[in-house]
Design goal:
alpha/beta, globular, two-stranded antiparallel sheet, 14 helices, about 280 residues, Rossmann fold, 10 strands
């Protein structure tokens, strides 16, 4: 496992980890709100590492990345972070793989840098808008009920809210895994979570420009983002492939790791007509 500090938007230090086949097509994983790059453990420890270059970033405000107080509202900052990781690590036509909040960051990148430098995208239980009735319509009431605890400066409120969040994300957690995840969730300051939820974004205009391959992966029983979001994304991305996953919570890449990894492999290998130059 390699790790890097990459200078992102506004000189924010972005922490990145890498493993796998350095000559394979890169897959850049972007986690959800209050998570970090460690959530992709079941991908990094899988046979995906034999064939692909696996890279995961800690979003600004998360994990080992910088946590500035006022640097989350501008789309360009998020786009610059992703662009910096792609450029600094020389990722050739990576697949952007975003979970939950992650697709918002992927679309920030496409809005400002276009899609020429990427090979494709995977939306995983993902949303593409915030701050509107349309955006709220695909978020479950149970998740929204936790939001006040996410913003609280009281440790006991944060622990309660984030523990509930983790149980909504994952059905298969050992005690040690739960407490590891709770640790990196609590390392995210409440002001960061509040800033992320406070963004107002409508990406329909960006979705309409996407021509690269897209895979939409969503758990049927997702307790955070309703499956109705798939209909929204399919309407905006008629060329997209989609997979509805049974027996999984919001984090289907964890609960159904073998199935998720198989689907991601098939999708990534389907892009072989435009393999990275380093792998030719």
């Amino acid at each position: 496992m390699k790790s890097y500090q990459v200078v992102g938007g506004g000189d924010t230090q972005i922490h990145v980890i890498e493993a796998g086949n350095s000559r394979g097509r890169p897959i850049l994983f972007i986690h959800g709100i209050s998570q970090c790059s460690l959530c992709w453990q079941r991908q990094f420890d899988s046979d995906l590492a034999q064939d692909f270059r696996l890279v995961a970033m800690d979003m600004r405000g998360h994990g080992l990345s910088d946590k500035p107080h006022d640097a989350y509202g501008e789309s360009k900052l998020w786009a610059d972070d992703v662009n910096a990781v792609i450029g600094t690590l020389k990722l050739d036509q990576p697949v952007l793989c975003g979970w939950s909040y992650g697709p918002l960051v992927m679309l920030d990148y496409v809005r400002h840098y276009g899609e020429d430098a990427i090979g494709g995208m995977n939306f995983i239980g993902g949303i593409s808008s915030l701050g509107s009735e349309k955006a709220l319509s695909v978020i479950t009431p149970d998740f929204l009920s936790l939001v006040p605890a996410f913003f609280s400066d009281k440790t006991e409120d944060s622990v309660r809210g984030l523990t509930s969040l983790l149980h909504m994300c994952f059905t298969q957690l050992e005690v040690a895994e739960l407490y590891l995840m709770l640790g990196y969730n609590l390392s995210v300051p409440p002001y960061v979570r509040q800033a992320l939820f406070s963004r107002s974004i409508d990406n329909d205009d960006v979705l309409a420009t996407i021509g690269k391959p897209v895979l939409i992966t969503h758990a049927i029983n997702d307790a955070i983002v309703k499956a109705a979001v798939v209909d929204q994304h399919r309407a905006a991305l008629p060329h997209a492939q989609y997979e509805l996953v049974a027996n999984s919570a919001h984090g289907c890449f964890w609960d159904d790791a073998s199935g998720f990894n198989r689907r991601l492999r098939i999708f990534t290998e389907s892009l072989s007509k435009t393999v990275p130059a380093t792998a030719k």
